[in-house]
């Protein structure tokens, strides 16, 4: 097949989808072209035709593959952007504010992180699933993996890292592991955990806190926990509050109501709620040896 016919049958339909990318691509091609690019006209279609014909004459089929790959890649990216924009708009109409959106492990579906948590939506925007997605693996003997929990674990660790400077820390002398606890100073089991921090420290587990006022953003507890985080010595203020003392009023730029919102997004429904080093969420109080066993079991299973 002649270069001209290859252009008409194979290249031209692609050009119409990607002509807006021409100038940048032309500059890239010129770096690899041993002689000047053929310019056959003033329109993008004519210019790309010149590039295509010149490359076909120089490199034959390899040039066609390069151009076709680039063109289809650009067209696919445009389609992907249109799809994600449409899904953002559609989910917003039902009150879901999208934070991230990426292809899910299932073809034709997207994994969506919203302020209400993680969910899955079909690429046509017609169906939505909340809950856990499992993989059974490709081997003859199924290996069950909770893909949703793995994704949630990564999200939790990332979210905590972004709040690193807002944590109230109780470090072990010799740190082996760190856990993050969503806490409320009025919660009985939170006080039990706090009173047993020495046990965690003896096992090499540092405990870091984020706030989770159980009564909601407008409660007295929320105002008090805000004051704890804004105190000159937040660690001592939290010690005193968990011993039953009422915190002195204080203000700062930290928003413990944002901690509350973050906790809900990450799946926290009550206190204490502990996030382990692998991102798993454990609800309720558990003694330090049980926490250590959970951490070590997860490490051994990797």
UniProtKB/TrEMBL annotation:
Residues 74-149 form the Disulphide bond isomerase DsbC/G N-terminal domain. Keywords: Disulfide bond, Isomerase, Periplasm, Redox-active center, Signal. Belongs to the thioredoxin family. DsbC subfamily. It comes from the Bacteria. The keyword Kinase does not apply. Residues 174-287 form the Thioredoxin-like fold domain. Pfam families: DsbC_N (PF10411), Thioredoxin_2 (PF13098). This is Thiol:disulfide interchange protein. Its main location: periplasm. Required for disulfide bond formation in some periplasmic proteins. Acts by transferring its disulfide bond to other proteins and is reduced in the process. One of its GO terms (cellular component) is periplasmic space. It is found in: Periplasm. GO terms for molecular function: isomerase activity. The keyword Disulfide bond applies.
């Amino acid at each position: 097949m002649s270069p001209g016919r290859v252009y008409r049958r194979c290249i031209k339909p692609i050009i119409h989808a990607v002509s807006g990318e021409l100038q940048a691509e032309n500059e890239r091609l010129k770096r690899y072209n041993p002689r000047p690019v053929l310019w056959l006209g003033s329109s993008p279609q004519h210019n790309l035709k010149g590039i295509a014909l010149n490359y076909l004459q120089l490199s034959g089929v390899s040039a066609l593959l390069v151009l076709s790959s680039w063109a289809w890649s650009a067209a696919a990216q445009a389609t992907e952007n249109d799809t994600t924009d449409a899904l953002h708009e559609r989910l917003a109409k039902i009150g879901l504010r999208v934070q991230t959106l990426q292809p899910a492990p299932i073809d034709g579906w997207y994994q969506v992180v919203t302020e209400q948590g993680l969910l899955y939506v079909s690429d046509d925007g017609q169906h939505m699933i909340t809950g856990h997605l499992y993989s059974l693996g490709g081997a003859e003997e199924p290996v069950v993996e909770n893909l949703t929990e793995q994704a949630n674990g990564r999200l939790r660790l990332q979210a905590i890292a972004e709040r690193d400077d807002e944590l109230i820390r109780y470090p072990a002398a010799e740190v082996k592991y760190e856990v993050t606890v969503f806490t409320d100073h009025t919660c009985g089991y939170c006080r039990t955990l706090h009173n047993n921090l020495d046990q965690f420290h003896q096992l090499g587990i540092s405990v870091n806190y984020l706030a989770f006022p159980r009564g909601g953003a407008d409660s007295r507890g929320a105002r008090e926990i805000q004051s704890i985080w804004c105190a000159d010595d937040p660690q001592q203020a939290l010690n005193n509050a968990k011993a039953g003392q009422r915190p002195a009023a204080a203000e700062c730029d930290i928003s413990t109501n944002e901690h509350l919102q973050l906790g809900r997004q990450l799946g926290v429904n009550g206190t204490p709620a502990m996030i382990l080093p692998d991102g798993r969420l454990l609800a309720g109080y558990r003694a330090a040896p049980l926490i250590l066993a959970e951490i070590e079991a997860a490490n051994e299973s990797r």
